[in-house]
Sequence to fold (166 residues):
Amino acid sequence: MIGKKMEAALNEQIKEELASAYLYLSMSAHFAAEGWDGMAGWMRVQAQEEQEHAMRLFDHIVERGGKVKLHALPAPEAKWASPLAAFQAAHKHEQHITACIHSLVDLAVKEKDHAAGAMLQWFVTEQVEEEDHASKAVQLLKLMGSEGRGLVIADHELGRRVAEKD
Ligand code: OFO
Fold:
């Protein structure tokens, strides 16, 4: 049986993951409207992964006899000054999510909740990848420049991203 504190904290994290999905969907919509199909696709794959993250937490709560409580999601931003600005925002967002996951691991230790601790280790590893993906995209956009041919090539390159299986 999951403890009340951990249940509440994981419910909060479900909200964070779904808010991440919402943010990346908004970025996808923004890029699609601007004609950057590759970057729109990258963000769409990312949004899909975030929903899967939320469901991992959802299932953990249910499997341990807890109750999932869904919270209201804030409306995400809808416009970014440039592709680089959007990917920098994505990278910053992932750093925030990493901090959330680390706090949850600390709580699992404090509460002696070994089951949650084990489940959360997957997220610790995943966040290394999440930050790396966003940071590599930022690096690519910086290298290729903010306009013209360079950006077209970067868009094509980022569009090659496909959903990963864990
Ligand atoms: Fe769920 O990792 Fe990104 O936010």
